[in-house]
Amino acid sequence: MNLGYFWPSMHRDTVEQLKKCDACQIHSPIPKSPKHDLVPITSAWPFHKWGMDIVGPFPPSKGGVKFLLVAIDYFSKWPEVKPLAKITGKQIIDFVWENIICRYGLPGVIVTDNGKQFAEKPFSLWCKEYRINQIFSSVAYPQSNGQVERTNRSIVEGIKTRLGRYESNWLEELPSVLWAIRTTEKARRSKMTKSILTNGSILEGIIILHLPSRNINTFRVQPSSVPA
Known about the structure:
This protein has 228 residues and is of the alpha/beta class.
């Protein structure tokens, strides 16, 4: 919120409001301190390194959809997600082509687990053809692909929270959950959201219908008059 709004007690008021949200209290993760210092794994520039994973199964939804294919850019933390009924190597190829290459360019590195859809043909052969370096996370230590693991948790927790508040199925709530993730600040006390790092601009929320942000007030464009 601090990208478009400010009042002296904004942080305190926001914290108090979140404490009153029953769904947030139930589904928010309990923070745990790591046993050892963590070594961050990131990328030097946007869209060069992506983490990918499969989330599910969820309860079958429209069209038999019960899995999510998730990709996360290691630099901006921007997520790309596609719901599928089943996930094959061919579908992963189509996902990378449509959701990553055609939008952000050819990646240099893709990090995944050792699942056969990722490690075997046709996806492994396709990566070699496009000179994409495949890195596999350790089975014993999946945290080595922690970027996408955290995004997976955020998606699942977001869906659970919204299902506790609205009567609808998880697939219908997915776009709202992704919007929330994409507009969240990248790090605490940072004003850089995933949308700014990815698109260079702020994604305005529906709150502007009731409370215009500083950007809207500053750059409001008046409707041009059309001669009769």
